[in-house]
Amino acid sequence: MAELRDYQQDLLEQAEAALQPRDARVMLQLPTGGGKTHIAGALLRRWLHDGRKAAWLTHRTELADQTRLMLEDTGVPASNRISWRVGNDAPYLTKGVVILMAQTVSRRTNQMQIWDRYRSSDLLVIDEAHHATADGYVRAIRQWTGRVLGLTATPWRLSKIEGFDHLFGQLLCGPQVSELQANNHLCQARVLMPRPGETISGGSIDDTGDYNPSGIEQANQDRPDVMTAGALRFWQFHAAERQTVVYAISKDHARNLVAVFKDAGIPAAVMLDDTLPDERANAIKSFGNGSLRVLVNVAVATEGFDLPDASCVVITRPTMSLALYLQMVGRGLRPKANGGNCLILDLAGNAEIHGLPEDDRQWSLNPRGNKPGSEAPVIRCEKCNGVSPAASQNCPHCGTPFGKDCPRCGVWRAWQRWGYETRCGQQHELVCDLCHYDAHIQAQLPITDELRRLTEMEPDLDAAIRHLLEEERRRASGADEERKRQLSSLISHRKSELASDSLLKAFKNHIAALPVEDRPKANWTNTACSLNGKTA
Ligand SMILES: [Zn+2]
Ligand SMILES: [Zn+2]
């Protein structure tokens, strides 16, 4: 059995303390790859004495096998091959852990109390406990008289009005993804996204709160290319040399993707829940030795599968579920032997909803309500397709600037916050959104034909515009001392306003209240590889 890492040992001790009260119901959160089940294994090894028993609920047969092996490796006897006759109480082992399928438990609890042979000193472990809100789990937990330990990477529900507070009394959280990355327990992730018009759309949200495969297909039916050939091209451009796991939208989509990759001469195979065990083992072996480059699966059908490690994860499925997003992303974050990173090709723009894999997240057992998530908004680099925090001033991947300092107010603003002041119908000056109002009412600087021509022709005008604007302003204000004085007092006034958050907010509201055509507009875009294979 592997030694526990420091944070794992720490969580183990916290969990033991939290499980002291006889009615303790504890949820333990740790990012994918952090070793939740190992902590639970170590905890069980210490828990099972003086006739104490434990049951482990899982929702996939593959996971049941993996769990049994893990527990045995930890020195905890376990069995998932037990006979359970209809009408009987749940089976138990006098020594060790009985691993039960959640679906079976759910059916049986519907008819009777099944835990009569368990006592309050016994422990019920629920793996992937973010599923524990389904009726069957809820019944099983309510009927259980002992302690409960839930394990999950994401205590998060699609429902905004229900949380986990009716099932668990305490939440223990492990380190954030960024902390595990800093200590080389997880590798770095680099998210890449196609340009906005070329991502796979989600369509309408169904009553589960998420997109579903038929809705997604419908939403993209006018451009079927984006779901298959487009995905291939984006992968070829960015990650053709990498061992890749692809998350498809449905089984049909998975098979279509494999066909498209194979047509392009790339060794690819599907891995689905109905793939025969032999084929599955072969695919994993070929993927491991590199003779198979791409393995395509469907997220909801393969949760918990022991898929091999990949240095590229392609996500084609749009989802509103943070849990599903992090589950897919987490597949590529195991540390790499060569210290390399993992590319996440986010073809469905999920990072715009859920943020980056390494964002710090605050978890809670309470319903999340309508509060916005803790994820920071992201920005996509037009030049390299890299996704980074929206507050970045330059692309951390390729160095492309995302904005510049405003020569008028001195504040750095992103490109999309710049525009020509045109409110009165005349073009005046290229200004940032903070200076928009001032520019209109106070400083109607002329703009030369030369500058206008240049901005129409040249995509990257930063230096040229900066120079020409300074010229313009010198000419306009130099001829008129009063105007120059006004302008400088105005700028210092705006600077003091910017120092106050509430005033800045009021000013932003003012901009937002302007008619759309009067708001600052984006004026140029850079070039980038695009999904349709053209370079703009
Ligand atoms: Zn970039
Ligand atoms: Zn400004």
How would you characterize the overall build of this protein?
- Helix 5 (135-143) links the parallel strand 5 and strand 6 (147-152).
- The chain is globular.
- The chain has 17 helices and 19 strands.
- By secondary structure, the protein is of the alpha/beta class.
- The two termini are 54 Å apart.
- The chain has 3 domains: 6-175, P-loop containing nucleotide triphosphate hydrolases (Rossmann fold, 3-Layer(aba) Sandwich); 182-389, Rossmann fold (3-Layer(aba) Sandwich); 404-518, no CATH class.
- It has helices spanning 6-18, 36-47, 61-74, 102-111, 135-143, 177-182, 213-219, 229-239, 251-263, 277-289, 322-330, 351-354, 436-441, 449-457, 462-478, 481-498, 501-513, and strands at residues 25-29, 54-58, 78-79, 97-101, 123-126, 147-152, 170-173, 189-192, 244-248, 268-270, 294-298, 312-315, 342-346, 378-380, 387-389, 403-405, 412-414, 418-420, 430-432.
- Mean pLDDT is 82; it is low at 441-448, 476-480 and 520-536.
- The strands form 5 sheets. The protein has a 7-stranded parallel β-sheet with strand order 3-4-2-5-6-1-7. Strands 8-13-12-9-11-10 form a 6-stranded parallel β-sheet, with helices on one face. Strands 14-15 form a two-stranded antiparallel sheet.
- The structure holds zinc ion (ZN) (2 copies).
